[in-house]
Specification:
The protein is mainly alpha-helical and 476 residues long. 56% of the residues lie in helices and 6% in strands. Helix 6 runs parallel beside helix 9 and helix 10 runs antiparallel to helix 11.
Length: 476
């Protein structure tokens, strides 16, 4: 196809140039690429089916993302810097569903043509591109944030903060907008695609400027976020697997009851499942668009039929529907607030950015220990842990006042961290203690929820009135 044929601006001119019959399209001055006139009209059944599908996906996406924004915005415990990324994703998908789906595309599908004119087509393609790229880039930022918290906990100890989160989101907005503006300045164009009921960037015209635009979008708008997501979730999985292995080894050093076998395996499987779900949904949503655009630019264009080019529309618009399911409804606190099934998973490792330390006591009747007893309880637990680690026999109970009474909170936390790493605290090195055969069994389990990096959860198990009571303490 020569350059002149690509610049024809009316269906009649394009048809005359290609010596084919003009199809019945009321284009309102739109540029319909001559490529589409090589194919027969799309049967009404396909248009109506697409209209029903787009309506369902859009309504679900609008309501789902609106619910996510409402709950995250009105629930104080969810208003954290880290969750700003989830809210931004929901807002992006919400706007994407309104502009790209119902009602504009639904009306076009049932009228079997784009009826809103050239300016609306350009705005439709521009806004769809901005918020489509914003969703992609926000997914990458969420992956990077979780990678920092889970795989690099020491560096993540520096609080994210609202200011830093806002700067990151500003970069996402700027980066996403950058790759959608060039068509407004002559680098490509926004034109109808596929069934001619929606508009997107022109990936058919093979001139220098359009090709540069396509390559930039593919490299910086698609490939770069994909590489970030793959890198982050790969290292998240490795970090979780290594963490479970270390906790199992620590439990053996403490000569404690080991509960790691099945739980470690389940944690790794769940982490892998979540990561694979995120990666696969990302690929299913955006690989079709990238593939069609590359084939249209560098491959045989006859492969890009109206039906083939409509596939990216289906998958991309569905992304606005499943994103809230994956990134919001799987959040442990969101499930609790929404009265959904609550289940401990990998998301709890990065909930609330591990800023504060809480005290949680879990009993058979789920009763909480008095807050004023926390210091004495932690001291008793540390003494028992140190005794178990020393491998000596206990002849008498260790008074809670020795050797932890005079510790300040920072020293107490450092001692707990040392024990969690399988080391004996310095102030216990000279302490000679023994353990009775019938003493409490001590186990350590990985910290979840609102913990600073290095904090540990220590569980004791003792017989109380013929029953077994489990208590978990976290350092404050």
């Amino acid at each position: 196809m020569d350059k002149n044929s690509a610049l024809l601006t009316t269906p009649a001119a394009a048809a005359a140039h290609l010596n084919i019959t003009t199809h019945v399209y009321d284009t309102h001055g739109l540029f319909i690429h001559p490529h589409w006139y090589k194919y027969p009209l799309i049967p009404p059944m396909w248009h109506y089916s697409m209209g029903i599908f787009i309506t369902f996906v859009s309504v679900f996406g609008i309501l789902g993302n609106l619910l996510v924004m409402y709950i995250f915005g009105t629930t104080k415990s969810l208003r954290t810097p880290s969750n700003m990324f989830v809210v931004n994703l929901s807002m992006s998908d919400f706007i994407f569903s309104i502009i790209q789906g119902f009602p504009l595309m639904t009306i076009s599908c049932f009228t079997r043509k784009w009826i809103f004119g050239k300016v609306a087509c350009e705005l439709y393609g521009l806004i769809g591109g901005v918020f489509g790229f914003m969703s992609i880039n926000t997914l990458a930022v969420i992956a990077f944030d979780r990678y920092n918290v889970i795989a690099r906990p020491i560096k993540a100890s520096r609080s994210l903060g609202y200011r830093r989160a806002f700067i990151m989101l500003t970069c996402v907005w700027t980066w996403s907008t950058t790759w959608t503006l060039p068509p407004l300045f002559g680098f490509g164009a926004y034109i109808p695609e596929g069934f001619q009921t929606s508009c997107t960037f022109d990936y058919l015209t093979r001139d220098k400027f359009t090709r540069i635009h396509i390559l930039c979008m593919y490299i910086f708008g698609f490939s770069t976020p994909l590489c970030i997501i793959l890198f982050c979730y790969y290292h998240i999985y490795r970090a979780v697997a290594a963490h479970e292995k270390e906790m199992g080894q620590m439990a053996k050093k403490l000569n404690a009851e080991i509960r790691q076998g099945q739980s470690a395996k389940k944690a790794e499987i769940k982490t892998a499942r979540i990561a694979m779900t995120i990666i696969l949904t990302f690929l299913c949503s955006w690989v079709p668009y990238a593939t069609v655009a590359l084939i249209a630019q560098f491959g045989p264009q006859e492969l890009v039929t109206p039906y083939v080019s409509e596939l990216p529309v289906v998958f991309a618009k569905a992304s606005a529907m499943h994103n809230p399911l994956i990134y919001a409804l799987s959040h442990p606190k969101f499930r609790e607030i929404s009265n959904l099934e609550s289940d401990t998973n990998i998301d709890e490792l990065e909930a609330d950015r591990a800023k504060s330390v809480s005290v949680r006591v879990r009993q058979t009747k789920k009763q909480e220990a008095p807050k004023q007893d926390n210091a004495a309880l932690v001291q008793d637990i540390m003494a028992a842990l140190a005794t178990a680690m020393s491998g000596q026999q206990q002849s008498q109970a260790i008074p809670p006042s020795q050797p932890f009474t005079n510790m300040d909170p920072q020293q107490l936390q450092s001692a707990i961290y040392a024990i969690s790493q399988g080391q004996l605290p310095q102030n216990m090195a000279q302490t000679q203690t023994t353990a009775s055969a019938s003493g409490p069994s001590v186990s350590a389990q990985p910290a979840t929820g609102n913990l600073r990096p290095g904090a540990a959860v220590v569980t004791t198990q003792a017989e109380v009135n013929g029953g077994v009571t489990n208590k978990a303490y976290q350092a404050d």
